[in-house]
Amino acid sequence: MRNLSLAGVLLAATLLLSGLPATAQDDPPMAIADTSSPRATLRSFIDASNEVYGIIRTEYVFDRTNPAHSAAARRQLDCLDVSNLPAFARDDRAREVAVCLKEILDRVQIPDWDEIPDIEAIEAAGGFEKLSRWRIPGTRLTIARVEEGTQKHEYLFSPGTVDRAIEYYRSLETRPYRTTGPATSPKMYRWYMSVPGDPWVASVVRRLPERLKFGRTLGMTNWKWPGLLLSALVAVGAMVLLYGVGMRLGRWARGTRPLAYVLTVVFPVAAMCVPKLFEHFVYSFLTVRGTPLYVLGFVVNAVFTLAAIVVVFASFSRIAELIIASPRIRPQGLNAQLIRITCRLLSLLVAAIVFVVGGQYVGIPVGTLLASAGIGGIALALGAQDTLKTLFGTVMLMADKPFQVGDRIVFRNYDGVVEDIGLRSTRLRLLSSHQVTVPNDELARSDIENIGRRGCIRRVTDVHIPLDTPREKVERAVTILREELDGHEGMDPEFPPRVFFLDFLPTAFAIRVIYWYHPPNYWDYLAFGERFNLAVFRRFEEEGIRFVLPQRLTHTSVESRPAALEVQVQAEAPTADRPAGLAAAGE
Known about the structure:
Elements: H1 2-18, H2 38-59, H3 67-77, H4 90-105, H5 119-124, E1 133-135, E2 142-145, E3 155-157, H6 159-163, H7 165-172, H8 188-194, H9 199-205, H10 210-214, E4 216-217, E5 220-221, H11 224-253, H12 258-263, H13 266-286, H14 291-324, H15 334-362, H16 366-383, H17 385-400, E6 408-411, E7 414-421, E8 425-430, E9 435-439, H18 440-444, E10 448-450, E11 457-466, H19 471-485, E12 498-504, E13 508-517, H20 522-543, E14 552-553, E15 566-567
Antiparallel strand pairs: 1-2, 2-3, 4-5, 6-7, 6-10, 7-8, 8-9, 11-13, 12-13, 14-15
Helix pairs in contact: 1-11, 2-3, 4-7, 11-13, 13-14, 14-15, 19-20
């Protein structure tokens, strides 16, 4: 069995390598489908479909790695609104839908091109709102204007048309092909289901009799069955071999050779990759299509999900043993048991997440599964509510990674540097040098501002000049500010400084100054701000430009005795949009 598996692996590798192009090719310029109107969309789709058909008939292969082949297929798919198709099978389903739509169009009467609305006809009808949909007469094929998404404002075959295209084609399959109108592509669906995706495989299949090339069994072309069964046996044999070797080496290394035991995780990881390699081979070389492809996709995703769960358990087991191998931890001590239990709980949690995510691709009703599991977990949740909240908060922090050790963050009223992220809490060293311990569940459900990850420091400040300043000096003040910031220290060319005469205030002329300092080193930023302020101060003095003085208000009592002198500086609170005076808003 082992020799057979190794031979199968070598055979699969040979087939994969034979499909690689011998030399690199320069991609030709890719034409784009015109979807500006129903006429343009229908013409682009028919032309692209006929081009795909011509490639299949003349070369008897459809190689997705060939730029010319992939460009024609891309123009074909660009005419479809596939927003309703499931994400995991969207591309495969869309290709089959495109072929079925072409088969339908080849069997129904298509109006003359002049009768199909173009941009001029749309404008004559009152605009896009008046002609947002157009149906091919006598059919259930609709071309509609998309109002959202990446293909917004394009005319595409509607989601309803795409959803029922395959069923619609089955009902019209026995109709004869039309003899007038645009060129047809007879038996395109049969050719689509039969041709291989690799030139080397095509050279072999071309020599087979018609019954093997085009005959189908259980929805799949006959010539593909031997390759599918052989590759499936190779994949199963490879997985069995990898798991067997990994388990044997794991038992040999566990407890005595920690590093070697950790490295044995390579075998389950390699086994996890086998289903995807099998899928790639079946998809790219055998080009299995239609219902068999969806069945294979279900099986491959199910096996891949189970293999990923095995990798999760194996990885956490090895992580625990590697930690326990530290000289500070006794293998049989309480700490070692706590580490093993913690890793086991984490592996169960991660495995459950992997199962739920993978279940979305294999059709498992995730909602029902979660509801059933929730009933059984109510008792545990009620008994250890606070602990579970903290643990889940830790998991969320580890998954989202909003900060890391060494980052400066702002959380509620705390501003400090992260010193440690523990299983239950996170420790912060505040700017006042005090240490704060925050439960992880509070961090997970709160807004966190990560100052340590900012890309730059922005300063926004207003320079106020008295209202009696002449216009020439106001213009000169703006020029001075711009000159001082021209090519300034820490400037990124993508963020040039901005200086504008902003507003007429009741007490002053306001000049808005904005600049960005890179990299975001706060002390360097303050030093540059000081040099900038002093340079502006000096040049204003040289030009005789004054800053606005604080407004002074003197209050006098009723008896005309002087009251206490009160000095108020009229200034607005510094915000990101309107900071006061020369105060920086960058920190």
